[in-house]
Please model this.
Amino acid sequence: MYMKIAVVMNLDWPLKRYHKLFAGIKDYADNNTNWTISWDPYPEIKLKKSPEYYAGIIGRCEYETIETAHKINVPIVNTWYSNLSPGLNSVFPDYFRAGVLAAEAMSKKGYTNFVSINYKGGSAAKQFLRGVKSILKVRKHSHNQYLIPRDLEKNKAKWEAFHNDFSHWVKDWELPVAIITAVSDLEPKISALCNENDIQIPENAVLISSDNDPAYCEGFSPTVSSVNIDYFDVGYQAAKLLDRKIQNEQIEEDNLFIEPTGIVYRESTCHLAIADNIVRDAITFIADNYHRNIQIDDVVRNFQISRRSLEKRFKETVGHTIHEEISRLRIETMKLLLLQTEKSLKVLSRDAGYSNENHMRRAFKLATGMLPKEFRDTHRLH
Model:
């Protein structure tokens, strides 16, 4: 006998965060349950008429939906970060960690001046900004923060005010600057206004976001780097949690947070803000050649300087060693290759620059706490 499950989501919006979330829910349901999935943005309407119509509710749940479900004891799992109701079981992306990753990545590229631009009132954006600030405070980097109305395109006066405000903001920026935003749909607005105000991306400003929505990250020029949020796994884990609730399992935790899988680097962050020419050239050489199984001596051979001196200058300038820089790039590459391809680990090890598969396995486990296959299975992209 099949059970009807209501999925509450804006599937008419062509955004990754909705469609990947739905795909994760459906994947769990198809392979583990006898559910019939029903897309219903207002399940409370049917439940008020027939309390047994749905066996469970999952998705971006409004307060009325939550209240109705609780009243008639229908299991419900929320995936909308703006609704943090006490006692409500929810599964969310770890937006705080996403902010940490974005700020760390730009700091490692040598940027010390930061700007964050986000919509007002967004709960997810607030957590993302907390993550950004946690890094900037420790590194003692400068930071200018700006909040803008969400309905810019629908209000001519607000749109004009945003353009005028942006022109004033840039006068306070010390270039080069790293611009960080929590949502992908702000990227084209920021990029266009930077261009209007003679700030060139990536020449004297880099831009990085969260979400990694291809429509925004790859649909404009320059393409934009972004933290990759694993919305598929958010949906999958939310469905798994709902299944446990339907089976009357005891659920102790209210909220489950899914970590981002890493950063997808694109054109908007390809420049480095490093004053030391030798260190900057060394980082560029590593970025261009890490996949060729280079070692530290291969980097040193390109410069008229001893290995000891280069390693010392490198560590003082960017805060980590040459070896750590090579390892970081290989690990980030492995993460993306594991999620985006079905190639064997032997082939992926070679493509990421490792000398052999065993070496890759050890390095990946040390860096992520997971073996490569476990990482691929946990963060599946369908």
User: Anything to note?
Assistant: Residues 95-229+264-269 form a domain with the Rossmann fold fold (CATH 3.40.50.2300). The first helix runs from residue 16 to 32. The radius of gyration is 23 Å.
